[in-house]
Specification:
Elements (H helix, E strand, L loop, with lengths): L10 E5 L8 H5 L7 E9 L9 E5 L7 E4 L5 E3 L1 H14 L2
Antiparallel strand pairs: 1-2, 1-5, 2-3, 3-4
């Protein structure tokens, strides 16, 4: 698991084999199980930032949101902080 903690709006990546909902077979029948995808966290469980928590992720191209154990996330990108940092860089001209 990434050292960063997911929050609503974070971009996260994970393997489809780690999705617990919707039906694994439905997703896998359309893609390979080792495919890593990236999406945006739309909600997290009460324990979402802990190893036994879950996050709900919307992935472009997949109609239903996916429920993934937080410990299975491969990467977490804090888009709010990264966007803020990018805008600050643009202001300083560097």
């Amino acid at each position: 698991m990434s050292d960063r903690r997911p929050t609503t709006g974070s971009r996260v990546s994970f393997r489809l084999i780690d999705v617990v909902c919707p039906e694994y077979d439905r997703i896998i029948s359309e893609m390979g199980p080792e495919l890593a995808v990236m999406g945006e966290v739309v909600l997290q469980s009460d324990r979402g930032v802990e190893r036994d928590g879950f996050v709900i992720v919307q992935v472009p191209g997949i109609a239903a949101p996916l429920v993934v154990p937080a410990e299975k996330l491969l990467d977490v990108v804090d888009t709010t902080r990264d966007a803020l940092r990018s805008s600050e860089i643009g202001k300083t001209g560097t």
